[in-house]
Amino acid sequence: MRLTAPLTPMPPNRNNLKLPMKRKNLLSLLVTVLMCGIFQNVSAHSLKCGDINIAHPYSTPTIANSKNGAAYFMAIKNNGKENEQLIGARSDVAASVELHEMSMEDGVMKMRATPEVQLPAGYEVAFKHGQSNGYHLMLIDLKRPLKVGDKFPITLRFKKAGDCLAEVWVEATKVDSHRH
């Protein structure tokens, strides 16, 4: 039979209680900051071209034997005091890149090439995948399939800001609402 002394509670020491709590809070804060930084780098990227902010250039994987693809942006925002226009784009992954406008007409999605996209001063224009009324960049005659994890350069041409090089990330679609 083993004998043990009864445990007697020690009086709380305020310094001993605060130190572990401070360490715990500091560790939690550090982990949170690091995770936010990691996820921000993984999930979003953007660039600035003059007064134009381009948020998260991305593309979706192409389906088998597809010759065309598309590039999107969460948004293009004109922070300037003057109106701007996106007037073209080019990329080494495709023979040509066209600006396309999508619209829903009588329950049918229509897609048309457009010579420019107006970017009013102080406004944001979305180029999101699956958006029923919006824009995207059509990648015509792809030189290779686009696969999840790929990255490729695309040059956007603005009327006033000039050429702006963006890196497009190929990402899996969250909702498969519209494909080219």
Mind explaining what this structure looks like?
The chain is of the alpha+beta class and 180 residues long. It folds into two domains: 15-44; 46-170, Sandwich (Immunoglobulin-like), CATH 2.60.40. Helices cover 17% and strands 44% of the residues. The protein has one helix at residues 14-43, and strands spanning 46-49, 52-59, 69-78, 84-90, 94-105, 108-113, 117-119, 124-127, 134-142, 151-158, 162-170. Strands 1, 2, 3, 4, 5, 6, 7, 8, 9, 10 and 11 form an eleven-stranded mixed beta sheet that branches. The longest helix has 30 residues, at 14-43. It is globular and about 45 Å long. The termini are far apart. The model is unreliable at 29-43 and 176-180 (pLDDT under 50).
Short description:
The protein has 180 residues and is α+β, with helices and mostly antiparallel strands. It contains 1 helix and 11 strands.
Write the layout of secondary structure elements.
Blueprint (H helix, E strand, L loop, with lengths): L13 H30 L2 E4 L2 E8 L9 E10 L5 E7 L3 E12 L2 E6 L3 E3 L4 E4 L6 E9 L8 E8 L3 E9 L10
Parallel strand pairs: 2-11
Antiparallel strand pairs: 1-2, 2-3, 3-8, 3-9, 4-7, 4-10, 5-6, 5-9, 10-11
